[in-house]
From TrEMBL:
Name this protein carries in UniProt: Glyoxylate/hydroxypyruvate reductase A
Domain of life: Bacteria
Single GO molecular function: NAD binding
Keyword field: NAD, Oxidoreductase
All residue ranges annotated as the D-isomer specific 2-hydroxyacid dehydrogenase NAD-binding domain in the record: 105-276
Pfam families in alphabetical order: 2-Hacid_dh_C
Keyword Ion transport found: no
Coiled-coil intervals, chain numbering: none
Taxonomic source organism: Marinomonas transparens
Length: 311
C-alpha cells in the first residue's frame, strides 16, 4: 500500500490516484486520509504532491518519498532533518515542456511583442531596428535538468546563449559561467535573462537591486523558477527606470498572485499563472512507477535531493 500525500483538493487527488494506480497495477495507492493507524506504521514509501509535513511525520517508518513535483523546496524548508529521503520528479516530458515555454517567451521578447502590442493600442506604426537571433544574448540562470535543455533549445534556434550554475559545467554551444564571479559576467551580457534556479537560501532574493543593475540597459527578464528569487521592489524599480524593459513572470512570492498586486496591471509585466511546465499526471506517474518497481525489485532508491545543498 502506498499513500498519496497532498494538500490538493479531493478532485485533484483522485486524478493523481487514478493515474498512479493505472501505471502501477500491482500497487494499491490510497489517499493519506484513508490510512488506518496500523497502515501508517507499515508505510516505507509515500508519493507526495506538496504535502503537509505534519502528515509525513505521521508515517514513522518512511524510507523515502517520491514527489510528483519537480520543486521540493517547501518540504526541504518545512521538514527539520527528515529521517527519509526526498526524491523529486525528473520527467523528460516536463523538461521539454519547460524548454518550449522558454523558447516561446524568449521569442516574445526577442521579437519586441510587448512594444508592438502597446503600439497597436495607441495606433502607432513604428518599426524597431531588427536584431538577429545570433546577436541576441540570452543568459540562463541554472544549468540543471531544465536549464540545460532550455539553453540547448535556444542554441538550436540560433541565439547566443550563456548559462550559470554553482559548479563548473560544459554544455555544447553554451558559454558556461559558475560561482559568484561568473554571475556578474553572465548578467552583464544577458539581453534576455531566464531564471531556472531552485529556491534555496543562496538564491532567495538573488535578483535584487545590485544584480539587476548588472544587466544591460533595457534587458528582458523571464522567471520560470520560484517567485522569491526576485526582489519584487527592486524589479519594479528597474522596470520604472527602463533598466529592465519587460518581465515575464510565471511564479510569485504569493500564489495565486493577489488581485490587487501591481504586476497584474503593469504594462511591462506579463503575468502567467504558474503554467510554464505543469506536471502531467500520466507522464509523471509512469516515471514514479518505474522508480517504485525498481525499489520493489532491489530496494534501490533513486537519487535524492541534497538537504544541505537545498536542491
Ligand atoms: P536542478 O536541481 O536540476 O538544477 C538546478 C540548477 O541550478 C543547477 O544547475 C545548479 O547548479 C543551479 N544552482 C543551484 N543553486 C545555485 C547557486 N547558489 N548558484 C548558482 N547555481 C545554482 O533543477 P531543475 O532544473 O530541475 O529545476 C529548477 C527549478 O525550476 C525547480 O527547483 C523549480 O523551482 C522550478 N520549476 C518551475 C516550474 C514551473 O512550472 N514554473 C516547473 C518545474 C520546476 P549545479 O549544476 O552546479 O548544481
Amino acid at each position: 500500500m502506498i499513500p498519496f500525500v497532498s494538500r490538493a483538493n479531493a478532485s485533484n487527488q483522485s486524478i493523481w490516484i487514478a493515474a498512479l494506480s493505472a501505471s502501477m497495477p500491482n500497487e494499491v495507492v490510497v489517499p493519506f486520509s484513508e490510512l488506518t493507524d496500523d497502515q501508517r506504521m507499515q508505510c516505507d514509501l509515500a508519493i507526495v504532491a506538496n504535502p503537509s509535513p505534519q502528515d509525513l511525520l505521521m508515517l514513522p517508518n518512511l524510507k523515502w518519498v517520491h514527489s510528483v513535483w519537480v520543486g521540493v523546496e517547501r518540504m526541504i524548508n518545512e521538514l527539520v532533518s527528515p529521517s527519509f529521503s526526498i526524491v523529486r520528479l525528473v520527467d523528460p516530458e516536463l523538461t521539454n515542456t519547460m524548454s518550449e515555454a522558454v523558447l516561446a517567451w524568449t521569442l516574445f521578447l526577442h521579437r519586441d511583442m510587448p512594444t508592438y502590442t502597446q503600439q497597436q493600442e495607441q495606433v502607432i506604426w513604428l518599426q524597431k531596428p531588427m536584431v538577429r537571433a545570433k546577436d541576441r544574448r540570452i543568459g540562463v540562470l541554472g544549468l540543471g535538468e531544465l536549464g540545460q535543455v532550455s539553453a540547448k533549445r535556444l542554441v538550436d534556434n540560433g541565439f547566443s546563449v550563456s548559462g550559470w550554475s554553482r559548479r563548473a559545467k560544459l554544455v555544447a554551444g553554451v558559454q558556461c559561467f559558475h560561482g559568484e564571479d561568473g554571475l556578474g559576467q553572465l548578467l552583464s551580457q544577458s539581453d534576455i535573462l531566464i531564471c531556472l534556479l531552485p529556491l534555496t537560501p543562496q538564491t532567495k532574493g538573488l535578483l535584487g537591486e545590485k544584480n539587476l543593475s548588472l544587466l544591460p540597459f533595457g534587458a528582458g527578464l523571464i522567471n520560470f523558477a520560484r517567485g522569491p528569487i526576485i526582489d519584487d521592489l527592486a524589479l519594479l524599480d528597474a522596470l520604472e527606470q527602463g533598466h529592465v524593459s519587460h518581465a515575464v513572470l510565471d511564479v510569485f512570492m504569493q500564489e495565486p498572485l493577489p488581485s490587487d498586486h501591481v504586476y497584474w496591471r503593469h504594462q511591462n509585466v506579463s503575468v502567467l499563472p504558474h503554467i510554464s511546465a505543469p506536471t502531467h499526471p500520466q507522464s509523471a506517474s509512469k516515471i514514479v512507477a518505474d522508480n517504485v518497481l525498481r525499489y520493489r525489485l532491489d530496494a534501490s532508491i533513486p537519487e535524492a535531493v541534497d538537504l544541505n545543498r537545498g536542491y
